[in-house]
Write a structure and sequence with these properties.
single chain; two-stranded antiparallel ribbon; 38% helix; globular; HET domain-containing protein; HET
Length: 262
């Protein structure tokens, strides 16, 4: 993995880290147009500051610094997508990248904070709650694991104002996603049935049809090669096979572990 940091006013990207990375923050967001986001090649060429997506980088850097973190990770510019080997590795490792982050910042470009936020337990809802519930972020395939994997998730408006955390907004998030609150609080995903986990993504969409399956790899803790162009049905068939094979291996291991009676 690579991490971003600011050296003075210059945005720099670390070399591909092999050993244990330093503590880092991670951004969760929805992508704009192809020309809007800052890419890995932009970073290496010292370009991209004029793109709309650069604002998200600045936000993530400022927020990370305020949390005492010097490094941060953003999918648009920390992955060299021209390198197919790296792309395979990073997508299959995405759940772990979010899980290991010290903080996950969710930037909601379609949610505006108007005025002061009322207390969440007050009789009147915050003025931004309606747009929060309708946010595009809750409809995208990749953001499912970005919600579930990190221990600490903080939500921010388009003005970079904090709206709350996964903990303080758990009731609203549960109502939007139908994900049980105990799962939002960190219950092990392996304790949830395959069908229920699959159901969480049913109404979510991805730009590429295969990503509907690939975005669930971390949710099920499996690895499959990425084959863009194979189609959604084939991708899901391979995902199902990987899940079934994992269950078979787990069943065999369980048989090898003796039951101890006290």
């Amino acid at each position: 993995m690579r991490l971003l940091s600011f050296n003075g006013n210059r945005l720099v990207c670390t070399k591909d880290l092999i050993n244990e990375p330093p503590p880092y923050a991670i951004l969760s967001h929805t992508w704009g147009g192809d020309d809007d986001e800052v890419t890995f090649s932009d970073i290496t060429a010292g370009k991209g500051s004029d793109k709309p997506g650069y604002r998200k980088i600045q936000f993530c850097a400022r927020q990370a610094a305020s949390d005492g973190l010097s490094y941060f990770w953003i999918d648009t510019c920390c992955i060299d997508k021209s390198n197919s080997t790296e792309l395979q590795r990073e997508i299959n490792s995405m759940f772990r990248l979010y899980k290991n982050a010290a903080k996950c910042y969710v930037y909601l470009s379609d949610v505006t904070k108007h005025g002061d936020i009322n207390q969440l337990d007050s009789s009147s809802a915050p003025s931004w709650e309606s747009s929060f519930r309708k946010s595009r972020w809750f409809t995208r395939g990749w953001t499912l694991q970005e919600l579930l994997a990190p221990a600490t998730v903080e939500f921010f408006s388009s003005e970079c104002a904090q709206l709350g955390t996964k903990e303080s907004l758990e009731r609203e998030i549960h109502e939007i996603t139908q994900i049980p609150i105990d799962v939002l609080r960190g219950r092990r995903l392996s304790q949830i049935s395959i069908d229920k986990r699959m159901a969480w993504s049913e109404k979510r969409s991805t730009t590429y049809p295969e990503d509907k399956a690939y975005s669930l790899l971390g949710i099920f803790g499996v690895y499959i090669p990425l084959i863009y162009g194979e189609g959604q049905d084939n991708a899901f068939a391979r995902l199902r096979r990987a899940i079934n094979e994992q269950d078979i291996v787990k069943g065999k291991l369980d048989l090898l572990i003796p039951t101890i009676h006290y």
